[in-house]
Specification:
alpha/beta, Rossmann fold
């Protein structure tokens, strides 16, 4: 474990879940909560996009755990990569284990999922019930967790690129099936990976706002009947 001049600790973890998983935990000084990341198929805990978002959450006082829910050997079987129930179960078990560690004990948990990882996060959220504070989905596939959506209690933010047409429609349908407090935000002009200038910065900002509100227990009032909220990428400075 290392600790920087700002009191932020960083540690690589061996996680005793399944055949044994690995993850990278960052805990800032005086954290308000911890967010576990679930990456999409073909990615890993080294995803530069997820690490970019995690750094923004750390800046806001939120701990982060980026972990791989499958071993390298398991990932060679594509059936495992799309076994959303398995991935969700492992994320839920990892959460229980993490919250027993001294550096995370007592912290309210949340999830951030990308692509298929968002489905795993929603399955895990349904398993944990009211013990989870919030979920954020980036370019997610919540349709892959369709059978579990009605059991999700945690306030859920769905972030989708405006030019990611097929995934946007899937998220609109999932939004209608969710019964928890939820919001669907569309980043204008962004595609699935949010590679456009300012798009990922907007994702990090939206995720940070949502998680801080719900981890602190002071969410903004929901707008009656609201569906899509459209925002622009962060303007170049």
């Amino acid at each position: 474990m290392t600790t920087d001049d700002h009191g932020t600790s960083r540690v690589g973890l061996a996680i005793p879940v399944g055949p044994g998983l690995v993850g990278d935990l960052v805990v800032p000084r005086d954290p308000i909560g911890v967010t576990l990341f679930a990456h999409g198929s073909g990615s890993s805990r080294f995803s530069p996009r997820n690490r970019f978002v995690a750094a923004e959450l750390n800046r806001r006082g939120i701990g982060t755990l980026l972990c791989d829910l499958l071993t390298p050997a398991e990932e060679t079987d594509r059936a495992n990569v799309f076994d959303i129930e398995l991935l969700g179960e492992r994320l839920a078990e990892t959460t229980s284990w993490l919250l027993e560690r001294p550096d995370a004990a007592g912290l309210p948990p949340a999830y951030f999922g990308a692509s298929t990882g968002a489905a795993a996060a929603l399955v895990a959220a349904a398993r944990r019930g009211s013990g989870l504070r919030a979920v954020v989905s980036r370019g997610g596939r919540p349709d892959l967790a369709a059978a579990r959506l009605g059991a999700v209690d945690a306030p859920t933010l769905l972030i989708v690129g405006g030019d990611d047409i097929a995934v946007l429609e899937l998220n609109r349908r999932a939004y209608e099936r969710l019964t928890c407090p939820r919001r669907l935000v569309v980043v204008r002009g962004a595609t699935h990976l949010f590679e456009e200038p300012g798009a990922l910065e907007r994702v990090a900002e939206l995720a940070g706002d949502w998680l801080v509100e719900h981890l602190r227990g002071r969410p903004a009032p929901e707008a009656p009947g609201a569906t899509d909220v459209v925002v622009d990428p962060v303007a170049a400075r």
